[in-house]
Design goal:
The protein has 381 residues and is of the alpha/beta class. The protein has helices spanning 52-63, 120-125, 127-148, 184-204, 228-238, 257-270, 286-296, 321-327, 335-352, 356-360, 365-373; strands at 30-31, 37-38, 43-47, 67-72, 91-95, 110-113, 151-157, 208-213, 216-217, 242-245, 251-253, 255-256, 276-278, 283-285, 303-306. The protein has one domain (30-307, 317-371): Rossmann fold (3-Layer(aba) Sandwich), CATH 3.40.50.720. It is 36% helix and 15% strand. The strands form five sheets. A seven-stranded parallel sheet has the order 5-4-3-6-7-8-13, with helices on both faces. A two-stranded antiparallel ribbon has the order 1-2. A two-stranded parallel ribbon has the order 9-12. Helix 4 (184-204) links the parallel strand 7 and strand 8. The radius of gyration is 19 Å and the shape is globular. It starts with 29 loop residues before the first strand and ends in an 8-residue tail after the last helix. The structure holds nicotinamide-adenine-dinucleotide and uridine-5'-diphosphate (UDP). The site of nicotinamide-adenine-dinucleotide has 29 residues, from helix 1, helix 3 and strand 7. Uridine-5'-diphosphate binds next to helix 5 and strand 10.
């Protein structure tokens, strides 16, 4: 473990000031540094575009002048996340489950495939849907890209490294994943999605790239999604105990969503085959995260220690050398600024919420995990 002192990047910057690279999505052409052809993205499809990261990606693409078709079935996302784009003539919302084949009329320059439950709580609740969207959903999104001659970007994850034995994680590391463990539906779905993407590139000549996103946080996370950042913030704001799993000495490296999205659009523009880690190398323990959130919320909420989920990785920190060299990308939003923006968003939502039960979030990690243990039918999965 490297502790919390390797800030690497993440220098001070105002949140929302155009973090990451100067990637104007549609403004470059020519050969990318990664050997790919730089693409003008005039019209993009974003699967999972009504989710947390996807909705910010839709915003960034629209800000850069690209038309956007958002494809989502609202499994873990919401129309609320893109409601501000509803009247925008450059934005279309297609409500569809991408595990079923789909098509989009007209030209498409890039397909961003983000559809998938992403929080451990969500993929535990939807294990088969997670496996299916990683397999069938990725195939259908690739097939759309193939029909359109579009570049395909897979949003993969640091979870492909499992509980890593190499630290920080470099793209050449193959990972340490339990194929039948409690996180396997997500980890293996993403590993399969990477294999499917790499195979389409190697054997069918598809224009693809793979980004491995590390823990990302920011506005529009769901209070009940069970991830540490929204859970700690809702608990701290409510003055309820902050639920730290295990001894809290496990680490994560948190990237503000604007930085992550800047990395995604840079990768799509440059066209390096990947995989490319996109994350913030500033690593901290979960116990430190709980303290930071409590301080920034000016909360007196106590910490309680709760059981740690199975196969929860001990350490996580990206090596972003490839992203920096090939994309010219590095995160610029430091943790306190990003957390403050996120806390402000949650506080405003809490103040204005009608559905306080949802906004208040789970009382603890056990409560959040409890939903996963409820008996369900096959079609719920
Ligand atoms: P999210 O749950 O907020 O968004 C996922 C979106 O995909 C939701 O809107 C959901 O409704 C949609 N979706 C799921 N299954 C679908 C299906 N079959 N058809 C159509 N839409 C479907 O999660 P997120 O945090 O925004 O993550 C987005 C992507 O980024 C995911 O692929 C995730 O694996 C990846 N990622 C995220 C993080 C992170 O920290 N947020 C880290 C690593 C990777
Ligand atoms: N975590 C925690 N309390 C919570 C939720 C999560 O201590 O209420 C821990 C979790 O066990 C893990 C870390 O925070 O060690 C990050 O969890 P998260 O679900 O945010 O992301 P991931 O495990 O996918 O990295």
């Amino acid at each position: 473990m490297s502790g919390g002192n390797d800030t690497g990047s993440g220098t001070s910057s105002d949140v929302g000031s155009g973090s990451g690279t100067s990637s104007d999505v549609g403004s470059h052409s020519g050969t990318g540094t990664g050997g790919g052809v730089q693409r003008d993205i005039r019209r993009a499809v974003v699967t999972g575009g009504a989710g947390f990261v996807g909705s910010h990606l839709c915003d960034r693409l629209r800000d850069a002048g690209a038309a956007v078709v958002c494809v989502d079935n609202f499994l873990t996302g919401s129309a609320d996340n893109v409601a501000h784009l509803a009247e925008d003539p450059g934005f279309e919302l297609l409500v569809h489950d991408v595990t079923e084949p789909f098509d989009v009329a007209g030209p498409v320059d890039a397909v961003f495939h983000l559809a998938s439950p992403a929080s451990p709580h969500d993929y535990a609740r939807h294990p088969l849907a997670t496996l299916k969207v990683g397999a069938h959903g990725t195939l259908h999104a690739l097939e759309l890209a193939g029909r359109k001659g579009a570049r395909f970007l897979l949003a993969s994850t640091s979870e492909v490294y499992g509980d890593p034995q190499v630290h920080p994680q470099v793209e050449s590391y193959w990972g340490n994943v339990n194929p039948i463990g409690p996180r396997s539906q997500y980890d293996e779905a993403k590993r399969f999605a990477e294999a499917l993407t790499a195979t389409h590139r190697a054997h069918l000549g598809f224009d693809t790239t793979i980004v491995r996103l590390f823990n990302t946080y920011g506005p529009r996370m769901r209070p009940m999604d069970g991830r540490a950042v929204p859970t700690f913030i809702t608990q701290a704001l409510a003055g309820r105990p902050i639920t730290v799993a295990g001894d809290g000495l496990q680490t994560r490296s948190l990237c503000y969503v604007d930085d992550t999205v800047a990395g995604i659009t840079a990768a799509a523009r440059v066209g390096h085959p990947g995989p490319i880690n996109i994350g913030n190398p500033a690593e901290l323990t979960i116990l430190d995260l709980a303290d930071r959130v409590r301080d920034l919320c000016r909360s007196a909420a106590p910490t309680v220690f709760v059981p740690r989920p199975g196969d929860d990785p001990d350490l996580r920190r990206p090596d972003i050398g490839r992203a920096t060299a090939e994309l010219g990308w590095a995160p610029v939003v430091d943790l306190d600024k990003g957390l403050t923006a996120t806390i402000d968003w949650f506080a405003a939502r809490l103040a204005g919420a009608a559905d306080t039960a949802d906004v208040a979030g789970p009382a603890n990690a056990t409560e959040a995990a409890g939903a996963a243990a409820e008996p369900r039918t096959l079609t719920d999965l």
